[in-house]
Amino acid sequence: MIRKTFKRHSTSGVGALRVFAIAALSAALAACSGGDANKAADADARSAVPVETALAAQQSITANYSGTATLEAVGEAQVVAKTSGIVLKILVEEGTRVEKGQLLAQLDADTANNKLAQATATLRKAQAAYDKAEKGLALKITPRSDYDSIHYDLENQKAVVEGAQLDLSYTRIVAPIAGVISRRSIKVGNLVQVNQALFDIVDLDPLQAVLNVPERDLDTLKAGQSVRMRVDALSGKAFDGVIARIAPVVDAASGTFRATCEFRDGTRTLKPGMFGRIEVAYDQRHDALVVPRNAIAEEDGEASVFVIEPAPAKPVQPDKTKGKPGSAVAAETKAPPAPVFVAKRRVVKTGYAEADRIEIRDGLKDGERVITLGRNAVRDGTEVQVLDGGKAATDAVAMNRVAGNAQ
Q1: Which of 62, 93, 209, 392 is the most exposed, having the fewest neighbouring CB atoms within 10 Å of its CB?
Q2: How many CB atoms lie within 10 A of CB 202?
Q3: Using one digit for the tens of pLDDT, what is the confidence trace for 276-316?
Q4: Is the pLDDT of residue 211 over 90?
Q5: What are phi and psi of 243, to 5 degrees?
Q6: Does 64-71+201-285 match 46-61+287-406 at the fold level?
Q7: How far apart are CA 83 and CA 105, in angstroms?
Q8: Where are the beta strands (DSSP E) in 152-196?
């Protein structure tokens, strides 16, 4: 009796152990199936191409023509010697601002003074002879031919005196234009000869820069349009100017025309020879649809962008862990999947471009998001993971609703 009771209890203990083992195995299988689901979701997220996006929005954009040119002085003169002589005095140095007619240097004038004195004496003698001949002609004492000869001698001597006076004035070296002395080529004591270079003068106000513009922009640029120049030598400092004139012809060899820009700088900061980057703003749109320029792809003469849209919802797998031991813990530890989108290629028509922005005139709507970084790694229909996911998801869903309502 005692033995039977013992066997009955042993059998019930084995059954309890079997039930416990089955429950543990079920929990393990549920955990494995949940892990597989998480791994699958993670694999989907990893297969998506990571990208960055930007919002297409209405902004003001300015149409610019950009070019480079070197500044040139409008007024420039080389002062040369018109007579020979020794340099006695130099009154200006390089960088000196001078006015037209200002004395720059003085040459030895002794020789010129001596010639003028001789010519003046000879002129007085000729004048006396002429006065005498004129009286004789009135009294009919002097023949007409003698009177004419004396008269010609007088006029010739007057010209000699004027020449001597001119040679004397040439010993005073004066500025032919107003400007700044850019070069001095002589020293005190030098013997200068006729036509020898003495000084270079440049007028720093205004300065000009000539743009060689392609002929397709002939109707775009006009005389009187405002321009802005940034000079590399001055840390990109900007200077405002104007298009002074447009060449009436196009160079057949280069297919360009000359647009001469004029700049006035009261601070005298600009210098001839400086290299400048010139922009001409010829039009402006205040409600243009604008995207970053790196969102545009050019292929076969066609411009396109990649717009992101929410990926189609995948079928939801039934939760096999529901109602099983450990399912609550698994649900709590399961991380939500990263948002995944689909890239859709759109052919667009571009307009004005300014800096790193470009206008879209057709093919895109305000508020849509376009791919900027990672664009080369996607194709039409590629799944992408947006790095700014939260904001992108909100924008994409909102745009889909607008599109649905419109339909």
Answers
A1: 93
A2: 20
A3: 999 998 888 888 999 999 999 988 889 999 999 887 766 65
A4: yes
A5: -75, 115
A6: no
A7: 13
A8: 172-174, 179-184, 191-192
Architecture of domain 46-61+287-406: Beta Barrel (2.40)
> Which pairing describes strands 383-386 and 49-55: parallel, antiparallel, or unpaired?
parallel
365 token code pair: 């709507």
225 contacts 242 by C-beta, under 8 angstroms: yes
SS3 per residue for 310-361: ECCCCCCCCCCCCCCCCHHHHHHHCCCCCCCEEEEEEEEEEEEEECCEEEEE
Checking DSSP bridges between strand 179-184 and strand 197-214, what pairing results, if any?
antiparallel
Q: pLDDT tens, 214-242?
A: 998 888 899 999 999 999 889 889 999 99
Q: Is pLDDT above 60 for 402? A: no
In CATH, the number for domain 109-170 is 1.10.287
Burial 219-242 (b: 16+ CB within 10 A, else e): eebeeebebbbebeeeeeeebebe
pLDDT in tens, 308-322: 988 776 665 555 555
* Among 350, 346, 343, CA closest to 379: 343
Contact 246, 259 (CB under 8 A): yes
Q: For the chain, which residues make up each domain, given as ranges?
A: 46-61+287-406, 64-71+201-285, 82-107+179-195, 109-170
Collapsed DSSP state (helix, strand, coil) of residue 209: strand
Q: Is 3.30.70.270 the CATH number for 64-71+201-285?
A: no
Task: Give yes or no for residue 15 having a pLDDT over 70.
Answer: no
- Evaluate if pTM is beyond 0.90: no
Residue 73 CB neighbours (<10 A): 20
The pLDDT assigned to 325 comes to 56
DSSP H helix total and E strand total for the chain: 5, 19
Contacts of 197 (CB under 8 A, 6+ apart): 78, 79, 80, 185
pLDDT class for 29, splitting at 50, 70, 90? very low
Q: Residue 396 — pLDDT band, cuts 50, 70, 90?
A: low
Q: Give 89-110 pLDDT, tens digit per residue.
A: 999 999 999 999 999 999 999 9
DSSP designation for 251: B
Record the tokens describing residue 87, joined without a space: 């340099």
Token pair of 396 as six digits:
């994409």
Cβ neighbours of residue 179 closer than 8 Å, sequence gap 6 or more: 73, 75, 76, 77, 97, 98, 201, 202, 203, 204
